[in-house]
Specification:
The protein has four helices and no strands. It has helices at 2-9, 14-21, 29-43, 57-69. α1 crosses α2 (14-21) and α2 crosses α3 (29-43). It has a single domain, classed as Serum Albumin, Chain A, Domain 1, CATH 1.10.246.220. It has 81 residues and is mainly alpha-helical. This is Myb-like domain-containing protein.
Length: 81
């Protein structure tokens, strides 16, 4: 469901995602952000193999695609004058 939420809401909208995708969960918006960060570290080549969870290959592909489409941390806009 977290991958669905990121695909729908993007990153940096954790409170919106919490209300829409996890309304009855005891997890906080910060918990969702931390879980996403951990999934990114594990499945975008930034973690040791011992950190991997055993997930379905299609789910891993969705995580990688969502990570590409929704970079985290979200780049900040800079106004250069």
């Amino acid at each position: 469901m977290l991958v669905d939420g990121v695909e729908d809401c993007g990153v940096a909208r954790w409170s919106v995602m919490k209300k829409k995708w996890f309304p009855t969960s005891v997890r906080t918006a910060g918990n969702l952000k931390d879980k996403w960060r951990n999934l990114l570290e594990s499945y975008t080549g930034n973690a040791e193999r011992s950190c991997y969870l055993h997930l379905d290959k299609k789910l891993i592909e969705r995580i990688q695609k969502a990570a590409f489409n929704n970079p985290y941390p979200k780049p900040r806009c800079t106004d250069e004058w």
